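Moderator note: this is an archived Q&A kept for reference. The question asked for a predicted structure of one protein chain; the sequence and the answer are reproduced below.
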Amino acid sequence: MRDRRLQSQHLGEEGHHAGFAGAAHAGVGADRFCTEYRICDRVLCGLCTGITSLVCPTYTTEYASKDIRGALGSGFQLFITIGILYAYLFGAVVESWRWLVLVCAAVGGVYLLLAIFIKESPTFLLSRGSEQSMQEPYILKPLAITLALMVFQQLAGVNAVIYNINLIFQASGTSISDDLSSIIVGIVQVIATAAGSLLIDRAGRKLLLCFSAFTMSVSIVSLGVFFYIKSSNESFAQEFLGWLPLTSLMIFISAFSIGYGPIPWVMMGELFYPNVKEAAGSMATTLNWTFVFIVTFVFAPLQDAIHDYGAYWLFGGLCAVNFLFCVLFVPETKGRTLQETMAHFGGPAA
C-alpha cells in the first residue's frame, strides 16, 4: 500500500471529491444534450456515485471527533435522502426528463465547486508510508462485520418496497397520485434519517441497528400478511385492513432510515486503520452496490415465483436473521477512538 495502489489512496480524498464530482456533473450534463449517449452517461454517473459512497463516509469519520462522529457520518445518508426528495419534487413538476436531469446536474456543479476547497484529512496524511496486512485477525473480523452489514442493508428489501410504493398506496384504498405518494415517502425518509443522525451518538450504533432490523422485520411481514389476505379475500382486506399496507410501509421506511440506512456507512469508516480503510471500504462499497443490483434484478421474478407476500416474508425473515447478527456480533463504537475499537478486535494500541 506504500504507493497507494488503490485510486483513493493515490489521489487522496480531496482529489476524489473534485474529480468525481466533475465527472458526475459532466455525465448528467451530457445526458441533457446528447440523448444517444444516455447509457454511457448512466455508467459514468453510477461509477462516480459508487466511489463517492466510499470516499464521503471515510472522509467524514476521519475528520470528526468521536463525540459527534456518528452524527456527521450519517449526514452522508441524510443528504442522499434529501437528494431523492429533491428529484421527486422536481420530477412531479417538470414536463421532460431532460429538464429533470439538468436540474440534478446543477447540484453536481455545486458539489464540484465546493470540492475544490476540501483539504486532505490529517488521518490520510499521517497514514502515508505505513502498511498493515489485510490478513491480520483484527482486520478480518471488522471487515467481515462491515461486509455483512452492507449485505443485510440491501437484503432488508428496502429497494423492493420502494419500487412498489404506488401499488402499496393503491392497496390502502387512497386516491393519492403516484408523484405525491413518492414525495410522501421521500419526506418520511428525510425526517427519519435526520432523527437517526441526532440519536446515533446518544443511543449508539448497535442499539439503533438492532431496533432497525427488528422493526423492519415486523413491518414487512405485516405488509406480506395484508397481501396474503388480499389474495384470498380482497373485499375483506380492503374493508378492514386498508390501513395496514400504508402503516407498514411508513414504519418500515422509518426504521430503515433511522438505523440501517446510515449506520453501515458510518461503521465502515470507524472499524479500520487508515492504511487499510480504502481497501476494506472499497470491498464493502462494491458489495453493497452489487447487492443493490441483485435485489433489484431478482425481485420481479421472485414475485412471480412466490407472490408479493412471499417476497415480503422472505425479506422479513432475512431482517430477523439480521437482528440476531447485530445482537451477537456487531460491536458498539459510540464514543470510542480508533485504537479502542481496534483493541476490541485484538489489534495493537497504535
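Archived answer notes: The CA atoms of residues 67 and 101 lie 38 Å apart.
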